[in-house]
Amino acid sequence: MSLIFKSYNDFGYLYSKHHFKNLPNGFEGKKLPKIFRLNEDGSIQKVGETELTDGQLKHIIENRKVIVSHFFEKDDIWHCFFLTYKSIGGKENWKEGQPHFHYISSAFSISKEYFIESMRTVKYKSTSVHIDLLEYGKQPNEEKNKN
């Protein structure tokens, strides 16, 4: 929150947030429970009616593509910090599973509108700029430090 307030108060940047969720193929239009989660033991906990089995719900959780993006913009300049559920869960190939944000901006010669649409279709431009989330979730060195 402090980044949002500081970027506006000190630099005049406006903030917006976009959330995109794409289900695996074959599940569009299916009745999902209101809430469902995958427990650590592999079981599914759900609230609400669904036509799907627990195995199908597990498949959705493990294979959905979710992107949460945070934009800071002023005139033609914009910055975007975004994460995927895989990047925040340490399931991407970055520093042995280090949870992280991705970064892209107008300096990459791409329009904000184009980038938003590319996130909606999960065909966004990847960059080599990552911001590690230290002390969040399972850190890759936790297992090594236990031994």
Describe the structure.
With 147 residues, the protein is an alpha+beta fold. The chain has 2 domains: 2-22 and 66-146, no CATH class; 24-63, no CATH class. The protein is built from 5 helices and 7 strands. The strands form 2 sheets. Strands 1-4-5-6-7 form a 5-stranded antiparallel beta sheet, sandwiched between helices. A two-stranded antiparallel sheet has the order 2-3. The longest helix has 10 residues, at 2-11. The protein is globular. The termini are far apart. The mean pLDDT is 90.
Q: Give me the side-by-side strand order of the main sheet.
A: 1-4-5-6-7
Low-confidence residue ranges: none
Strand proportion: 25-35%
**What is the CA–CA distance across the termini?**
37 Å
Alpha-beta classification? alpha+beta
Shape: globular
Arithmetic mean pLDDT: 90
What share of the residues lie within helices? 25-40%
Largest sheet: 5 strands, antiparallel
User: How many strand segments?
Assistant: 7
Element order: H for helix, E for strand: HEEEHEEHEHEH
Number of helices: 5
**Domain unit count:** 2
Multimer state: single chain
Brief characterization of the structure:
With 147 residues, this protein is α+β, with helices and mostly antiparallel strands. Helices cover 26% and strands 30% of the residues.
Annotate the secondary structure layout.
Layout: H1 2-11, E1 14-22, E2 35-38, E3 44-47, H2 54-63, E4 65-74, E5 77-84, H3 85-88, E6 100-105, H4 112-120, E7 130-132, H5 142-146
